[in-house]
UniProtKB/TrEMBL annotation:
<dbReference type="Pfam" id="PF01965">
    <property type="entry name" value="DJ-1_PfpI"/>
</dbReference>
<keyword id="KW-0326">Glycosidase</keyword>
<dbReference type="InterPro" id="IPR006286">
    <property type="entry name" value="C56_PfpI-like"/>
</dbReference>
<keyword id="KW-0645">Protease</keyword>
<protein>
    <submittedName>
        <fullName>Protease I</fullName>
        <ecNumber>3.2.-.-</ecNumber>
    </submittedName>
</protein>
<dbReference type="InterPro" id="IPR029062">
    <property type="entry name" value="Class_I_gatase-like"/>
</dbReference>
<keyword id="KW-0378">Hydrolase</keyword>
<dbReference type="GO" id="GO:0006508">
    <property type="term" value="P:proteolysis"/>
</dbReference>
<dbReference type="InterPro" id="IPR002818">
    <property type="entry name" value="DJ-1/PfpI"/>
</dbReference>
<dbReference type="GO" id="GO:0016798">
    <property type="term" value="F:hydrolase activity, acting on glycosyl bonds"/>
</dbReference>
<dbReference type="GO" id="GO:0008233">
    <property type="term" value="F:peptidase activity"/>
</dbReference>
<comment type="similarity">
    <text>Belongs to the peptidase C56 family.</text>
</comment>
<feature type="domain" description="DJ-1/PfpI">
    <location>
        <begin position="6"/>
        <end position="169"/>
    </location>
</feature>
Length: 173
């Protein structure tokens, strides 16, 4: 498979948008990519907005972003929790500095805002946080997917096929 030896972090916390967590994980695994689900605690059950559970493989402190090829941030209400952890913001900053793919969808832009990496970058999100994205210096576009270098952003669940096609393309450059 083309994704063998590729590793991606998928962040998780309670109230994630179920499709925005699972669809990217499953698509990447179909490509042979190892996806590690990383949360506040290892081996913890997290429940999505619609009741679908997922378990973390590792805690934030157990992973080294340098050992991974990319990172995914799901939407839902989880990003508001995720951005409160210095370890998460540090992961995002390190991925950004290394120009590794950073995928964010829907409300996940909040994490990138808190990591202070959006200034001057083309980005999209759910329209509900457009002002937040622009106030952080992002150039917000109302498109299904926006790719600005190694940052891949998307608006909402119906955009997932285009989002993951773009993410996979950037991951395998």
């Amino acid at each position: 498979m083309k994704g063998e030896k590729k590793k991606v972090i998928s962040l998780i916390h309670h109230d994630f948008e179920d499709l925005e967590l699972w669809y990217p994980i499953l698509r990447l695994r179909e490509e042979g990519v190892q996806v590690d689900v990383v949360g506040e605690k290892a081996k913890e059950q997290y429940v999505g907005k619609y009741g679908v559970p997922a378990y973390s493989d590792y805690s934030f402190g157990e992973v080294d972003p340098a050992q991974y090829d990319g990172i995914l941030v799901p939407g839902g209400w989880a990003p508001d929790k995720l951005r409160r952890f210095p370890e998460v913001l540090e992961m995002i900053k390190k991925m950004d500095e290394a120009k590794k793919p950073i995928g964010q969808i829907c409300h996940a832009g909040w994490v990138l805002i808190s990591a202070k990496i959006l200034n001057g970058r083309n980005i999209t999100s759910t329209p509900g946080i457009r002002d937040d994205m622009e106030n952080a210096g992002g150039i917000w576009l109302d498109e299904a997917v926006v790719v600005d270098g190694h940052i891949i952003s998307s608006r909402r669940p119906p955009d997932l096929p285009e989002y993951m096609k773009a993410y996979i393309e950037v991951l395998f450059r």
